[in-house]
Amino acid sequence: MLFVTRTRLYVSHRPLKNGVYPNYGIKLVPTNNNHSNGSIASSDNSDSSIRPKLVIVYQSLGTTPTPTPTPTSAPSDTTAPSGSITINSGNEYANSTSVTISLSATDATGVTGYYVSTSSTTPSSSDSGWTSVTSTTSYSASISYTLSSGDGSKTIYVWYKDAAGAPTQANFSLSSLILPSPTPVVSDLCEVYGFVTDEDNHDLTEVNIAMEGEKKIKTKTDEDGYFEFTGLEAGKYTVTYEKEGYRKQSGDITLVEGEIRDLGIIVMEQNIAGSIYGTVTDAENEPVESAKVKLKGKGSNAKVKEKYTTEEDGSYEFTDLEEGTYIIQAKKKGYKKAKERIKLSDGEDNEVDLVLEKK
After folding, report:
1. Does the global pTM surpass 0.85?
2. pLDDT tens readout for residues 186-209
3. How many Cα atoms occupy the beta-carbon half-sphere of 288 within 13 Å?
4. Which listed CATH number (2.60.40.1120, 3.30.530.20, 1.10.15.40, 2.60.40.3230) goes with 274-356?
5. Which CATH class is domain 190-267?
6. Using CB atoms within 10 A as the burial measure, which of 9, 104, 174, 186 is most buried?
């Protein structure tokens, strides 16, 4: 501390009267030029010529600038949106890859987007898969989505984001739902399939095949000789194969619940054509010319209905007949009808003479 015992008072700038003057003050200044740095020594007080002076000085204080306040950082949002997802209204199974997804999310600062994927990898905020929505504290929507093809469990993930911070600092939340595969249903219904060929192993198309059990169902072979029956009830069946020019075949099978039966290759044999022929005479064994002879019956594959007019010698003939049972009848005006039943074997030529008696 510096004690000054003697000083001289000088007034700076102008004379002063008694009173209070703002911006004025008293300042102790050295008069010793030897102190270039403006300091005051205790020895300066012994020499009146260099004693320090009390000087009244005026200082323009001006306007003191208002300090800029340090900004206070707003608390960061570190809470992610809370969300959920529902697929097809919560159904456990789906029979189509096209599903409806129900989205729901809440956030204090506002949900601004969602991201739907079948990958569990968390997306970045710049990924193109984000769908933007108008910011809302409570968001809900239903959207269409296509699952990957194929049966099995499907997992869908959804992320929601809010507007907190820069886009790269956005908050995310995750929801997922697993669609379990339906438990395979074992059908009680049966299937039967097979192929039909001729004796030379050529595929036979358009073969009429019937399965008769409690009810009768029919089908035909395709260009490869293939046939199949589906949706059959378990039980006993008679399977019949028919095609014109071939011998009719049939066989019995018994199916159990859920059975798939391969009947293998069915070989059909060609018919060897037979014939029925003869002569129509009267009671005196004279040939009857122009008598009407009618043949009808059922061969192995088709019904037969043919007519013939006897020759001058009373003869007639029906050819290319399949194995089967036939009725032959002859008639002419003035004569009583004559009729015979014939069972024709495969390839057989059967002679049948008919006698007409006069009325």
Report:
1. no
2. 568 999 999 999 999 999 999 999
3. 27
4. 2.60.40.1120
5. mainly beta
6. 104
